[in-house]
Design brief:
Layout (H helix, E strand, L loop, with lengths): L4 E6 L4 E3 L3 E2 L18 E4 L33 E9 L9 E4 L5 E3 L5 E6 L2 E3 L1 E5 L2 E4 L4 E3 L3 E12 L1 E9 L9 E6 L13 E7 L5 E7 L2 E8 L6 E8 L4 E3 L2 E3 L3 E9 L9 E5 L5 E5 L5 E7 L2 E8 L7 E7 L4 E3 L2 E3 L3 E8 L10 E6 L4 E7 L5 E6 L2 E8 L19
Parallel strand pairs: 2-30, 3-30, 5-13, 14-20, 14-21, 22-28, 22-29
Antiparallel strand pairs: 1-34, 4-13, 5-8, 6-7, 6-10, 9-12, 10-11, 11-13, 14-17, 15-16, 15-18, 18-19, 22-25, 23-24, 23-26, 26-27, 30-33, 31-32, 31-34
Length: 412
């Protein structure tokens, strides 16, 4: 669907009624593999066994990377079948077999055979018995109602990661959570940028940790603790029986605080202040009655801080440098808002309801926000003073295209 765009100048305290913005298009458009991958085979079969236990929780105090599996847990699950063997080819009875990053787990029978029911998606299995462990060489794709058969997991002497978690000042971080992650499939898979959690440990009073037993493989090891950035080491090759030492360092998080006032120097209560950085971290706070705000848990970096009125679109930016454990300052002076009102119509002249009207700030080169038209095609928005590009769109993909610019007269 084609859209129309206009460039509008919003002045402080002014209500500007804007002319028609046309949206062209149909009026009814809505807004809107195992050790030997070649040996694996997929077959249809019914639900034969199910075992769920030993859930591994998310990494640290933050959310873990989610496995790329469906959420449907109905009778149409997929299955993985195979055997667990010792290095000399003997069957392993009673070994635990689990799909990493999920709750799916089962045990082998007397002849080393297992059948594991999993959600459709890509899975990689690990097996463990006593001081022996093993993993599939790569992942296997399981479809709903299908069985990936012929998986063989060979056990060898289990390995481990050990180390100490310390802060940027050299102090030890007691109670840090440490996770070992293993890729489920190829390293290019999005959900395996970090890998899926295989095992976790908690650092002791001296910051020391040990994660075992682990199968040989390529791992990522990460640590997290309240008040610190996560720390990680990637692509660590762990061999059978190896005790690999991995020191982990964490940077202390910082804070940003300041005062929000209007142009007369009066404190603004309830102003919205938010931060974001190149990693995608976004934090938000509101100013108190005296205009003061504080945002804790900020990653050390050059941070963009934005301040704006709670009931208006648009914001004012500041750049601050946050160092580990420090508090940076960013004050804001917010001008009185103006208002923009208008109507969106279709080529036929009929009002266009439920249309998304977006505002892009020319001066700040960012998106100020959006509103939606009512049943009569009308919209109204409060905005900080400035020049905005206004775009109306309504289609399934919600992608404005094309532009027609017209600058409205300044209002004082």
């Amino acid at each position: 669907m084609r859209t129309a765009a206009r460039t509008i100048l919003i002045a402080a305290g002014v209500v500007l009624v804007f002319a028609i913005a046309r949206v062209s298009g149909h009026p009814s458009a809505a807004p809107g593999m195992g050790e030997n991958p070649g040996s694996l085979r997929a077959t249809s079969r019914g639900r034969e066994s199910s075992a769920v236990s030993g859930s591994i929780g998310p990494r640290g105090h933050q959310q873990a990377v989610s496995p790329n599996v469906a959420e449907d847990d109905g009778p149409d699950a997929g299955y993985i079948a195979g055997r667990v063997l010792f290095a000399d080819g003997r069957a392993v009875a009673g070994a635990d077999v689990k799909a990493i990053g999920t709750d799916a787990v089962t045990s082998t029978s007397g002849d080393g055979a297992f059948l594991l029911d999993v959600k459709p998606g890509v899975h990689r299995l690990v097996a463990q018995l006593g001081g022996a462990a093993g993993a599939m060489a790569t992942g296997v794709t399981v479809a709903r109602g299908q069985t990936a058969d012929g998986v063989v997991i060979r056990l060898s002497l289990a390995a481990s990661f050990v180390g100490v978690v310390s802060a940027d000042d050299g102090s030890r971080v007691a109670g840090a959570q440490v996770a070992a992650r293993l890729s489920a499939g190829g390293l290019r898979m999005r959900e395996d940028l970090w890998g899926r959690i295989v095992a976790m440990a908690v650092a002791d009073a001296e910051g020391a940790f040990a994660i075992a037993p682990l199968a040989p493989g390529i791992y990522s090891v990460e640590a997290s603790a309240p008040g610190f950035m996560d720390g990680a080491e990637f692509r660590l090759a762990l061999e059978a029986g190896q005790r690999l030492e991995v020191p982990l360092k964490l940077k202390r998080l910082g804070a940003i605080e300041g005062v929000v006032k209007d142009e007369q120097g009066v404190a603004i209560d309830g102003a919205v202040v938010s931060t974001w950085d190149w990693r995608g971290q976004r934090l938000e706070a509101r100013s108190s009655a005296d205009g003061h705000y504080r945002i804790d848990g900020v990653r050390p970096d050059r941070i963009t801080v934005a301040g704006g009125h709670a009931d208006a679109l648009g914001h004012i930016d500041r750049r601050v440098d946050v160092t580990p454990g420090s508090t940076a300052h960013a004050d804001f002076t917010l001008p009185v808002t103006g208002q923009l009102a208008g109507i969106v119509t279709l080529p036929s002249g009929a009002p266009a309801s439920s249309v998304r009207v977006e505002f892009y700030s020319r001066a700040r080169a960012d998106r100020a926000g959006e509103v939606t038209t009512d049943a009569d095609g009308h919209y109204r928005a409060k905005l900080l003073p400035g020049v905005y590009e206004v775009t109306a769109s309504r289609d399934a993909m919600r992608r404005p295209s094309g532009a027609l610019f017209a600058r409205g007269p300044p209002r004082g």
